[in-house]
Amino acid sequence: MERREAAAALAYTGRLAPRTIRTDPGEARDQLAQWHELLHDVPFTTDHGWDVREAIRAHILDSPYPILPVDVARKWRAYRRDRLDRHTDPTPAADPDDPGAWRAELVSSRHAVAAGAAAPSTHRQLTSGGPHPDVEARLRAIGSYIPPTVRAELARYRPAHAAREAVVAQGGPDALSVPCGWCHARTGEPCRQRRVGPDSTRRGNAVRTIPHPSRADLAAARLGQQQTA
Ligand SMILES: [Zn+2]
């Protein structure tokens, strides 16, 4: 939480338990600095049930001891642990054959749950079919299964795709909009590096990050025609 939020939490504490807050101006400043220091990575509220005021209120009701910021930080850690215990990794939208992307999406969804930005996903929700409500909300918000932050993270795992997006974003021709006359990649498919062995047999066909130059030229010529038409 930010400093003004720490001040609000402290003010709330003062309303419920007046003797816990300092009234001398110098001491009050020190107390606020201490609360802010210890609670800067604890959110004031989240969309999924955490509210620092609830934590403060519960402590004051439950404990005979004056509340300290560390009590609030401990409650936040317990809340995170509890959410992760209840969380079952949902099936990522990423291609299962792409372990890097798959893992990145799992890690991202766990971070979101731990931080209170997303609700835990349980087995029951997993088997009930259809996307999780959170996923639907996210889809509506951004029109894609892949949030922009995750997409950026995935770029390292999908170099050909990322290179294509970068060229198109800069207004350049999308080479994949035409077939490749060199490697015979079809429209929409990336170019492949054909490796031919000494006995003329194919030795592999790794995906090329950069399309073959003749294909890029063809796409540029098409784009030019479209723009002048
Ligand atoms: Zn090609």
Written description of the protein model:
The structure is a single chain. This protein is mainly alpha-helical. The chain folds into three domains: 3-86, no CATH class; 99-154, no CATH class; 173-228, no CATH class. Helices cover 54% and strands 5% of the residues. It has helices at residues 3-16, 25-39, 52-62, 69-86, 99-114, 123-127, 133-142, 148-154, 159-169, 213-228, and strands spanning 192-196, 202-207. Strands 1-2 form a two-stranded antiparallel sheet. Helix 1 packs across helix 2, helix 1 packs parallel to helix 3 and helix 3 (52-62) crosses helix 4. The protein is elongated. Zinc ion (ZN) binds at residues 180, 182-183, 185, 191, 211-212, 215.
Quick rundown:
The chain is mainly alpha-helical and about 230 residues long. About 55% of the residues lie in helices and about 5% in strands.
List its salient traits.
binds zinc ion; two-stranded antiparallel sheet; 5% strand; 229 residues; mainly alpha
